[in-house]
């Protein structure tokens, strides 16, 4: 019951933010979410508490900067500059920690910054289409896996994920994009929407498995206990982080 209630509250809050927040409010929210996700990621990769606040600030401010301009060269140069600054001046640990910390720019800041840029450039319908496709795919992966799952997809990383669940999610996500996509992008041919939906599903699965690998390495079940019954922020957006860059490129937000 707690999981259901917190899920409903979370979904309602996300939808309200998408529908009613002005661009400046959305950019602030994205920066906060990026900082919270970075805190969890940094804990998973072993960066200690004393260093995390500064890293969280860099990740949040980078997401803010990237959300204001979606030109490809600006996105790339901002990410590279901040990642380099981050690795050279803000990390006093090992070289491995510097690389892991800087990776947060690519893993968290860039996708979330581009998510806000998508909303600002294409409106709430495109944002809802992106998120809804991920949610539909995730949901059908779960239920297809429970009903038909027999063969593990990646047993060493996430034993509960099955090939049958992935197939169910791929069918559902692709079909949803083909049916709902024309409402947002009427000029896109069905074949393009089908390919986009399928690619989004595959990337979402990879994003989920990537975070599962981080949690397995850290020997934890969830990235945090912030959201009752759902784990942490990173647990909720793991698929979205991999899907968003491809989606914004496909719909022409990144130029």
Overall outline:
globular
Structural class, by secondary structure, is mainly alpha
Major sheet characteristics: 2 strands, antiparallel
Number of domains: 1
Q: How many strand segments? A: 2
Question: What are the salient characteristics of this protein?
Answer:
3% strand; mainly alpha; 255 residues
Describe the structure.
This protein is mainly α and 255 residues long. The chain has one domain (2-250). It contains 9 helices and 2 strands, in the order ααααααββααα. The protein has helices at residues 2-20, 23-44, 52-67, 72-89, 95-122, 124-148, 163-184, 190-218, 233-250; strands at residues 152-154, 158-162. Strands 1-2 form a two-stranded antiparallel ribbon. The longest helix is centred in the C-terminal third of the chain and has 29 residues, at 190-218. The N and C termini lie far apart (44 Å).
SSE blueprint and pairings:
Blueprint: H1 2-20, H2 23-44, H3 52-67, H4 72-89, H5 95-122, H6 124-148, E1 152-154, E2 158-162, H7 163-184, H8 190-218, H9 233-250
Antiparallel strand pairs: 1-2
Helix pairs in contact: 2-3, 2-5, 3-4, 3-5, 4-5, 5-6, 5-9, 6-7, 6-8, 7-8, 8-9
Overview in brief:
This protein is mainly alpha-helical.
């Amino acid at each position: 019951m707690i999981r259901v209630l917190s899920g409903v509250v979370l979904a309602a809050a996300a939808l309200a933010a998408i529908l009613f927040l002005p661009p400046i409010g959305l950019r602030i929210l994205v920066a906060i979410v990026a900082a919270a996700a970075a805190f969890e990621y940094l804990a998973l990769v072993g960066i200690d508490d004393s260093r995390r606040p500064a890293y969280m600030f860099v990740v949040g401010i980078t997401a803010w900067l990237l959300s204001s301009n979606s030109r490809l060269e600006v996105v790339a140069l901002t990410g590279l500059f901040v990642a380099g600054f981050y690795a050279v001046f803000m990390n006093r640990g090992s070289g491995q920690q510097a690389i892991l910390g800087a990776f947060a720019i690519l893993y968290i800041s860039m996708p979330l910054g581009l998510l806000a840029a998508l909303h600002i450039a294409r409106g709430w319908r495109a944002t809802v289409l992106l998120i809804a496709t991920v949610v539909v795919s995730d949901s059908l992966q779960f239920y297809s896996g429970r009903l038909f799952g027999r063969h593990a997809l990646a047993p060493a990383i996430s034993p509960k994920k099955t090939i049958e669940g992935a197939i169910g999610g791929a069918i559902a996500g692709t079909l949803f994009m083909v049916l709902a996509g024309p409402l947002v992008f009427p000029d896109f041919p069905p074949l393009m929407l089908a390919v986009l939906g399928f690619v989004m599903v595959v990337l979402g699965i990879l994003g989920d498995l990537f975070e599962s690998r981080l949690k397995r390495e850290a020997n934890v079940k969830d990235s945090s206990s912030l959201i009752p019954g759902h784990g942490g922020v990173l647990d909720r957006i793991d698929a979205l982080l991999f899907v968003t860059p491809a989606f914004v490129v496909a719909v022409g937000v990144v130029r």
